[in-house]
Write a structure and sequence with these properties.
Chain lengths: 352, 449
């Protein structure tokens, strides 16, 4: 009996793998978990409005998505990579080596990063980059000298902030969000407090430029005494941490905050409240562009690919009144330019 | 148990009625021990009750869904501009063209039923309705183009905020900063419910439906990932049962007892204790990176879970083969049966209930497993497409039930949190059913000697 089932199961596996080579008729998308909600909203609407099947959307992170994107050209590779950062030179090179030379870069809009705390918790309503730098950096400036961070409470360095223990929950280093946080918050705060100049003076390096670079990097450092916690999971985990710590301050995406306004209150950054308007105008300082990348070689081969890209950036989807904006994406003021770029299939280098 | 003191060796000085000090001490020790046992069981029961009630409390809401009854006037001026009735022309109107029609329909229904509300624009109705409503109406029109120009009554999904409000999840005082709903809209919801336009009903599409994007949790269902789990379990069953049974029969009945078979036995026992994530890494390396099988496919998930389930099946099968008394084998051999005949005609049928029980328990374990799926890409995938055939059920990317629950728990909209708990209820029902089948099989067919 077991011999019989063995052979039938082997046959079944063979039959199944024989059909694996069948042609693909749906668009395949992978990449950033930040872009995933937007991409899945578009994919869903695309499936409803076109005769093409609903595109397959997977997450896995910007880097992982771009890596799969650069594996080569052909039906067994993905067509679109979502990314919460610009593609790197190294990745373009890796792509070119695998034969992926024509890449269309599409900017879909902006994502804001907000600082929020428990709704009923202490009054964290205004922050500046300098406040966050003072709270988070291992080295801060006191009386014109660089010293190990002695601050235990927010009120220690800014009397306007609540008199509670510092406890922050920031995205872990594998997140694209962390990069924005470092560049737009920590480095800015580093310069504002004067720590940058002092770090530069201390830094080792051949010339002024190398020293500047080292100091820039030193500004990224975050204290390791437990006042700041890296969250490697997603925003739900940050939210759970805030739930159990009423003094905590967490970093969230604007869309996540807007879906959880019943639990969170948001703080202004440098006196600008985060909203789709202030981010679109550039007033709110902590934001980043979101992208997706399309393989030009697949247009015309994979049915619906170009239509998907065009649909993604169309006014009714990515415009200020579209569903993406409703969900929290900050619409790109230069959307029209992006639309022509996609329509012309302008690849990186030629169209930019 | 006090009469236990009436021991035959009782010393003459002590009374038969009153227990002596030593006996009393022993009895006290026994009572204490019983109390400890009782306390242990009560603690276990307490946690079980807490667990089950919190799952039910959080998850039952997912099986209820709010619907809005809206008469929609299918305006020919908008849906079929040229009046040709050509289906291709009608299809060109996207869901964005349908949304205003539905909002108008709801607004006129509100005004008709005499509800007083400060919301007088049709755009104000947008937040009450699910984003899926437009797609539902469009599908209907594309299927029935002759209905254009008529007013058709639709039963559409309410938005997740309205749904949450009716279920008590969204509180009036919490929505001040919420741009997805306003207090006036919640007031209107109350009035609509009293007028019978908004009502709650059983949510079948939660069980059968596909996953949805983050902007419309009210539409999401576990159906597609249930199919993913089904195809995975099929692979596991078809592979692990024959391989596992064949391996255990050989090891138990035919294999010589030597160092080599001892080594294999030790390894099988060890494999059963290996953390499941290790199998996930193995699957990623062997099936996806080396064998180039498609990522996120139930076939790969099934193969990985087969590796995980095999030791469980082999161990339980060997135990049940061992439990068949040697006299059965001896009798069969004695009347002239070959070794193989004695096994397949006598031993295996008698061991079958035990083997099936072990298999079902192994499958149930595999069904609830998330960790290996994490690595082969079945987590983080939006299961929005039903497989269109048997082969595509194995090969097209899909999710699995536990992976779907994990995915929902991660999402921003709190309505997904409720869905995650609802998904847990469904998964538990499956596991309980499988375990119940295993128990019934054992009860009915197991023979004791």
């Amino acid at each position: 009996m077991s011999r019989f089932t063995l052979s039938t199961s082997a046959l079944a596996i063979l039959a199944v793998s024989a059909t694996a080579a069948a042609a693909r008729d749906n668009v395949q998308v992978a990449g950033s978990s930040t872009v995933l909600p937007y991409a899945s909203i578009v994919a869903e609407a695309f499936g409803e409005n076109f005769d093409f099947p609903t595109p397959v959307v997977e997450s896995g992170g910007s880097s992982a998505g771009l890596k799969r994107f650069c594996e080569g050209v052909g039906e067994n590779t993905i067509d679109v990579a979502n990314s919460s950062r610009k593609i790197r030179e190294k990745e373009i090179k890796a792509c070119a080596e695998a034969g992926v030379t024509d890449i269309i870069e599409v900017r879909i809009g902006y994502d804001g990063i907000v600082f929020a705390s428990q709704k009923t918790g202490p009054e964290f309503t205004t922050f500046t980059q300098a406040d966050l730098f003072n709270a988070l950096s291992p080295k801060v400036v006191i009386d014109g000298k660089l010293v190990d961070n002695p601050y235990q409470k927010w009120s220690d360095f800014n009397a306007d902030l609540p008199d509670v223990e510092i406890a922050t929950f920031i995205p872990g280093t594998k997140h694209g969000t962390r990069e924005v946080f470092e560049e737009k918050v920590l480095v800015q705060g580093c310069e504002d407090t004067g720590a940058y100049e002092l770090l530069k003076a201390e830094a080792e390096g051949e010339d002024d430029k190398a020293k500047g670079k080292a100091a820039h990097k030193a500004c990224y450092n975050v204290r390791t005494d437990g006042k700041s916690v890296d969250i490697d999971g997603d925003y739900t985990e940050t939210l759970a941490r805030l739930d159990s710590n009423s003094n905590g301050v967490g970093v969230f995406g604007l869309a996540f905050y807007e879906n959880n306004t019943d639990k969170l209150k948001v703080a202004t950054m440098a006196d600008v409240a985060p909203s789709t308007e202030t981010i679109a105008s550039g007033e709110y300082p902590v934001s980043r562009p979101l992208y997706f990348y399309v393989k030009k070689a697949h247009i015309g081969v994979i049915p619906g690919l170009k239509e998907y890209a065009e649909f993604f950036v169309s006014d009714e989807i990515a415009g200020p009144d579209g569903p993406l904006s409703d969900y929290g994406l900050v619409s790109d003021p230069e959307l029209a330019a992006t639309q022509t770029l996609v329509a012309d299939e302008a690849t990186m280098g030629e169209g930019m | 148990m006090t009469d236990a003191t009436a021991t035959p060796q009782a010393a003459p000085a002590t009374s038969l009625v009153a227990a002596d000090a030593r006996t009393q001490k022993r009895n006290r020790a026994e009572r204490r021990f019983r109390a400890y046992g009782m306390a242990a069981i009560l603690t276990g029961l307490f946690f079980l009750v807490v667990l089950v009630s919190s799952i039910l409390y959080n998850g039952v809401g997912a099986f209820q869904q709010s619907f809005v009854n809206v008469p929609v006037y299918l305006d020919p001026a908008k849906l079929d501009k040229n009046g040709t009735g050509d289906i291709e022309e009608i299809k060109k109107v996207s869901t964005f063209g349908y949304a205003p029609l539905i909002q108008d329909g709801l607004l006129s229904e509100v005004q008709k039923s005499g509800i007083e509300t400060p919301l007088t624009k049709s755009k104000d109705m947008k937040n009450l309705l699910s984003a899926s409503a437009a797609a539902e109406v469009r599908d209907y029109v594309v299927a029935n183009p002759e209905q254009i120009g008529e007013t058709v009554e639709f039963r559409l999904l309410a938005s997740s905020r309205v749904d949450g409000y009716l279920k008590g999840r969204v509180k009036r005082e919490d929505v001040a900063d919420d741009k997805n709903i306003s207090v006036e809209q919640l007031d209107l919801t109350d009035q609509l419910r009293d007028a019978g336009i908004v009502s709650k009903g059983f949510n079948l599409s939660f069980i059968t439906g596909a996953d949805a994007s983050e902007s419309r949790p009210e539409q999401a269902g576990i159906g597609v990932s249930m199919l993913g789990s089904f195809f995975m379990m099929l692979v596991v069953l078809v592979l692990s049962l024959p391989i596992g049974v064949a391996a255990s029969i050989y090891l138990e009945e035919f294999a010589p007892q030597n160092r080599f078979t001892d080594l294999i036995e030790v390894n099988i026992s060890n494999l059963a204790a290996v953390p499941s994530i290790v199998f996930g890494i193995l699957g990623l390396a062997v099936f996806i990176q080396f064998a180039h099988l498609p990522q996120s496919a139930p076939l790969v998930g099934g193969l990985v879970l087969t590796l995980m389930t095999l030791p469980t099946i082999i161990i339980s099968t060997r135990a049940s083969l061992k439990a068949v008394p040697p006299s059965i084998r001896d009798a069969a051999l004695g009347v002239g049966a070959s070794k193989m005949q004695s096994i397949f005609h006598h031993v295996l049928p008698l061991a079958m209930p035990g083997i099936l029980t072990g298999t079902i328990i192994g499958l149930a374990q595999a069904l609830g497993e998330t960790a290996p799926l994490l690595l082969i890409g079945m987590v983080g995938y939006i299961a929005s497409n039903y497989p269109d055939g048997f082969a595509s059920g194995f090969l097209d990317p899909n999710s699995a039930m536990p992976a779907q629950i994990y995915e929902w728990a991660k999402r921003a909209d709190p309505a997904y949190y409720e869905r995650a708990w609802g998904g847990i209820i469904i998964l538990l029902v499956f596991l309980l059913t499988m375990n119940a089948i295993a128990i019934i099989l054992r009860r009915r067919f197991e023979r004791r000697w």
